[in-house]
């Protein structure tokens, strides 16, 4: 399957209808607005799977989790 085809789920993401900066809060700012949007997203699981597959744990709210939460999830999957 081509890379583009694997990411068609992104077209259905709730975040495409919002300000992308909400998903990249400055250090110390709340991630709550992005987390609320993710909670209603129909493709949250696909987004999280993509972020974890890419080991994207540095910036932003992805798949309904903060970078800290994604790092913890990856660590728990290793053990």
What topology does this entry show?
Blueprint: H1 3-6, H2 32-39, H3 44-53, H4 67-78
Architecture overview:
The protein is mostly helical. Helices cover 43% and strands 0% of the residues. The chain has four helices and no strands. It is globular and about 35 Å long. The relative contact order is 0.15. The mean pLDDT is 91.
Major sheet summary line = none
User: Can you give the helix content as a percent range?
Assistant: 40-55%
First-last Cα distance: 30 Å
- What is the radius of gyration? 13 Å
**Helix/strand order:** HHHH
> Could you report the average pLDDT, rounded to the nearest whole number?
91
Q: pLDDT under 50 segments (min length 5)?
A: none
Q: Tally the beta strands.
A: 0
Strand content: under 5%
Looking at the structure, what is the overall shape? Answer: globular
Individual helix count: 4
Structural class: mainly alpha
List keywords for this structure.
79 residues; mainly alpha
Concise summary:
By secondary structure, the protein is mainly α. It has helices spanning 3-6, 32-39, 44-53, 67-78.
